[in-house]
User: Fold this.
Amino acid sequence: MAITTKSFEIFCGTGGVGKTTLATSRALSLAGENRVLLVTIDPAKRLKDLLGLRSEDMGEVTRITFEGIELDALLMSPEKTITRMAASYNTPDLASNRIIKVLSRPYGGMNEILSLVEVQMQFDSGKYDVIVLDTPPGAHFLDFLESLGKIRSFFDQNFVEIFNYLGQKTANAGKKVFSFNIINKVISGGVKKLLSYLQKVTGAQFIDDFIQAIQIIYQSKEAFLKGLSLQDRLKEKSQCNWFLVTSVEQGKPQEAIELRSHASHFIHEDHYLVLNKCLENELRDWSPTDNKLKNFKSSLEQRESLLKTKLRESFPEVLEFPEVTSISPKDHIQHLTQNWKKHASQS
Ligand SMILES: Nc1ncnc2c1ncn2[C@@H]1O[C@H](COP(=O)(O)OP(=O)(O)OP(=O)(O)O)[C@@H](O)[C@H]1O
Ligand SMILES: [Mg+2]
Assistant:
């Protein structure tokens, strides 16, 4: 069945199976007829090298040309997203608070939420028909999507209001008289203990920064909540294609099956399993005369055929992509782009 293009297309899967290569080639295959943005939150930045992006392009939407095809690409940089949010929501403190700076470093813990906020901001710009998202390996991104409800409730909870109130009080009172009396009145025992402990080990400045961080995250809640609302759209069959990528290499398909069952609440049932690096075509054209090689060929063929049967039973749709026999990643992308076009025109 031909693949219908959706507003969001997400590539996930375990390590090294070809997510970045397939996401890039998918974006290129759509670029002629659609306005496409390719976003990667892949910390390996492989895409940067592949597409000839410079370090200064990190975090900025950059127009690239690959073998004559033009495309917008964005390598996620959490700091740049924070700066953009601060500008569009008029909250300059967001970019200058020390705690938020730490949280928005790569691996600082805000990477995923900021990616969603960024994707939503880019979509809202109205410039794109399709956003293709390449995710880091493993279940982390999917786990994160599942945990978004907790972040949503953070913005609903009264304690943010309390921090707002505390922040105003401490600002009015000046830094020296950070008032634990107020804390005593309004905050539960656990938070109280935590804050007094933190004050002992970090000094009052940290507490001020901490309260300010919570306040300004709260002031920017519209951006965060919009980012969170993306979660619902990604669950919609009409809005999002999920490509769960795996390869024929030993152990990889089993990892994909586990990943899918792990994330089954999140990935809607019309997802695709993308089976990469298939050897079938290469093997068909290979006619060894040596007996050992003949046996080797037939065992490889058998293994792949069994694997495909098993996967077709377990997944609603399996898309096959061949192993490209070249050592150049550019050739891989180019070949796989043509393969996406073939899949798209199949009926
Ligand atoms: N169909 C293919 N044929 C041959 N080589 C491929 C194919 N697909 C991907 N590759 C190569 O395999 C390597 C890993 O690919 P890629 O970086 O896309 O994987 P990934 O899943 O994004 O990895 P990571 O989990 O590290 O993000 C790259 O060198 C890529 O060029
Ligand atoms: Mg990758």
Notes: The chain is about 55% helix and 15% strand. The pocket of adenosine-5'-triphosphate (ligand 1) is lined by residues 15-21, 42, 44, 46, 137, 276-277, 321, 323-324, 329, 332, 336 (CB under 6 Å). The beta strands are 8-13, 36-40, 62-66, 69-75, 130-134, 240-247, 272-278, 318-322.
